[in-house]
Design brief:
The protein has 96 residues and is mostly helical. The protein folds into two domains: 49 residues, no CATH class; 46 residues. The protein contains four helices and no strands. The chain starts with a helix and ends with a helix. The model has no long low-confidence stretch (mean pLDDT 84).
């Protein structure tokens, strides 16, 4: 038998969120806003550097590879978290 209290608690937590989409949540997340501001400032500094086109191209490719690696890492972590959540739900529901 499932513990309905757990699901009620989860449902209540989700319902108490102010926003139901990523964009609205990001607009109000202080860490995200701070990181976005820092990225914009660094981008301006990068554009003002006296670099050749070849040097700029190498740096841009390097940054792109870091972003690609971070995106792949995030997806692996997301899949692992989802697997953990489904496993927990199966255990709570005695559905093993």
């Amino acid at each position: 038998m499932m513990n309905s209290d757990f699901f009620h608690l989860l449902y209540t937590h989700i319902e108490e969120r102010d926003y139901n989409n990523v964009y609205q949540n990001l607009k109000h997340d202080e860490d995200y806003l701070e990181a976005t501001k820092a990225e914009a400032e660094l981008c301006i500094q990068f554009e003002n550097l006296a670099l050749s086109e070849e040097e700029r191209d190498i740096i841009k490719k390097w940054v792109a590879s870091i972003h690609t690696q971070n995106a792949a890492y995030s997806m692996v972590m997301f899949r692992m978290a989802m697997q953990c959540c489904f496993s927990l739900l199966m255990q709570l529901g005695n559905l093993e």
